[in-house]
Amino acid sequence: MLLGPWSDQVGRRSVLIAPFIGLTLQVVVYLVVMYQELHVGFLLLGRIIGGLTGDFNMILAACFAYIADVTDRPSRTFRVAILEACLGIAGMIASIVGGHWRKVQGYINPFWLAFALYVFTAFYVYFCVRESVKDLKPSRLFTVKHYQSIFQLFTVPGENGRRSKLCLYCLAFLLVVTVHMGVKDLMVIYELSFPLCWDSDLIGYGSAAEHLTYLSSLAGLRLFQLCLADSWVAEMGFLSNISGLVVFSLATTTPLLFTGYGLRFFSMATTPIIRSKLSKLVDEGEQGTLFSVVACVEGISFILATSIFNSVYPATLYFMRGFAFLFGAIVLLIPAGIIGLIEIYGQKPLYSQFAEIS
User: Which of 93, 289, 311, 357 has most Cβ atoms within 10 angstroms of its Cβ?
Assistant: First the structure.
């Protein structure tokens, strides 16, 4: 909440470099702990360093703000979706490479790769990434002004119900990410348990299918945008996600579970659309502030997902093994309703604008 508004003044490059420096120091702490065989509690020191410099969420916030800076409104949704698809590709590569590498050589060498990638990316941002903020201004980092800008984002009235739309879209984003992360946390234990009893190979295939939804959602988004408004494309994403989760909740065989993965081929189209909708509600000089809020919402979603779904799953095993997935499908009806209602009732009719002018 400091770094995001600060980037609106001093630019995105500084805010992009800071988390990579922090994550590099975090990996250094991890390597020292492993080489010296220290108590695992010392790993917390690395996490604190990474967290104070923004961590992974700040990298995402700065990248999405950068995309908002350099794109026009019609193309922004697809550009944001490309950035989200990069997360899926990276997750797939990391799962495959990291898992096999760890089995062969242990934990230390993969962390050296992480160290090298963080250092390379920091230098890449410094020397190769152009600044996207047009009007740069000197600004202090540690000031109450940044918190005030976030407060004003949600309290100052705007045109066409901007304030209420910001709140509703943030709520929708919170629920979508909570369900996504909650389901992701449960999938492996669900696949390992009876009657599926998957082995490591099948779990790897399932993980690959989960990450492929980023790419299939990107392709579907590009296709459906030709004939539908973004909000209705998001509703199709909700339909894909909900139908897949319902099948997960009832799956007792491997083919049925993979059917659920197939039905969720378009499930990742909703989050880039919500990010884009939020971005279009604020001015150019507020993109960093907005996406820092979105990053905070995402962090809260991770906490909610772990606490809620990890509690619901064991508590409902006695009457329905897959109830947690059905619960997630029911929760998704709320953001689906929010986006549908905003699309139907949120657009101010043209005749009312003309009446006000006259």
Answer: 289
Number of residues written out for the chain: 358
d(CA 295, CA 275) in angstroms, rounded, equals 11
Q: How many CA atoms lie within 13 A of 64 on its CB side?
A: 33
Contacts of 6 (CB under 8 A, 6+ apart): 15, 139, 141, 146, 288
On whether the CB atoms of residues 53 and 117 are closer than 8 A, the answer is no
Over residues 278-322, the pLDDT tens digits come to 999 999 899 999 999 999 999 999 999 999 999 999 999 999 999
* Type of residue numbered 353: Q
d(C-alpha 224, C-alpha 232), whole Å = 9
Residue 261 identity (one-letter amino acid): Y
Q: Are the C-beta atoms of residues 310 and 171 closer than 8 Å to each other?
A: no
Q: 269: closest CA among 237, 317, 246?
A: 237
What pTM did the predictor assign? 0.91
Q: Which two tokens stand for residue 156?
A: 């100052």
How far, in Å, CA of 242 to CA of 327, rounded? 10
CA distance 185 to 304: 12
Rounded-to-integer distance, Cα 98 and Cα 347, Å? 47
Average pLDDT, the chain: 91
- Between the alpha carbon of residue 310 and those of residues 321, 322, 323, 334, the distances in Å are 13, 12, 12, 21
pLDDT above 60 for 182: yes
* Euclidean distance between CA atoms 234 and 172, whole angstroms: 11
Asked if 309 and 183 touch (Cβ cutoff 8 Å), the reply is yes
Provide φ and ψ at 52, rounded to 5°. Answer: -65, -25
Rounded average pLDDT over 150-157? 88
Three-state DSSP string of 142-203 = CCHHHHHHHHHHHHCCCCCCHHHHHHHHHHHHHHHHHHHHHHHHHHHHHHHCCCCCCCHHHH
Residue 42 is classified by DSSP as G
Euclidean distance between the first and final Cα of the chain, in Å? 42
Q: What is the distance between the alpha carbons of residues 270 and 118, in angstroms, rounded to a whole number?
A: 29
CA torsion angle for 167, 168, 174, 179 (degrees, to 10)?
Answer: 170
Distance, CA of 340 to CA of 358 (rounded, Å): 31
